[in-house]
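Subgroup meeting minutes
Present: P.N., E.W., G.H.
Scribe: E.W.

1. P.N. recapped why we're keeping a running log of single-chain structure predictions: easier to compare across weeks, and new members can see raw inputs and outputs side by side.
2. G.H. added today's entry (314 aa).
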Amino acid sequence: MSGNPPSRALAPPRPRGWAPLLSALLYGATTLLVLSSCWLFISNLDQLFPSPLRASEAMSAWREESLTPAFAGGIWRDAAFWRSVNLALTTSTLTAVVAALVGIPAAYALSRDKIPGRGLIDALFSSVIILPASSVGLCLIVVFQYGPLYELQRALGIRVPHSLFPGVVIAQLVLSLAMGLSAWRQTFDGVPARFEHVARSLGSSPWRAFWSVTLPLCRPGLAAGLILAWVRAMAEFGAVLLFCGTFRELPAARFSDLTRALQLDRADILPVAMWAEIEYGNVEYGFGIAFGMVLISGVSVYALHRIGGRGYLW
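Output recorded in log:
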């Protein structure tokens, strides 16, 4: 009497010989990066919280004449730093909202509709992601300083380059929109279109099918794209510096009464403020701003991981 051979439980696949070595190298590189960053911050704690007794008379006189405190220890008590934080948070939030209002419908259309030239659009936004930010700022200067947009600004009596909110938001929007659009496009591609077709076959309108079927499935991905757009806007430096410059070097007459009342004309977004402080010679002060941006980025990436957005980090 012949029978089938007894089934054997499949053993888990054994790792290849090079896998443990590769894992060890990756963990070692990660550990080295983390320890180097910790050492960088810990070794500068004496500069973040210096003792006033250690400063010489020449250093004290130079500190009083400088635009900002010489050491980063005064950063938390400096009103200029908090004005820069408020400006960075406000412009990044406005940029992320505009990117979402434009990018989410565009990503849905690119994912669901057969748009002519869709491959060209994908290539364009993908190239923007890897394009140097300074090149984006230079292109914006050319676009807004010459041609129809320049004539439109003259007719309206406005000036977008070197303006506070319009200039910063436009400079941040280019790369922020490209980053968010890629994430939102992947999100809609991951939800089969047949779900919407089934809902519409049961009597739902296109809007109701999107709102009740597609949107709940895409909510984590949409949130991840919004965080990516916000973080990219917060970290923007090259485009804002070329297109807007540093506001503290511009005359006060260039700003509105409300901007001067809020003293935002004496503030810059955090990356530009960090660069300006280093240029002024306040290296430790710039280091303190950089540390604050590291904290903001770390919290943002942690939130991105918590909502399941690891796949959108390139």
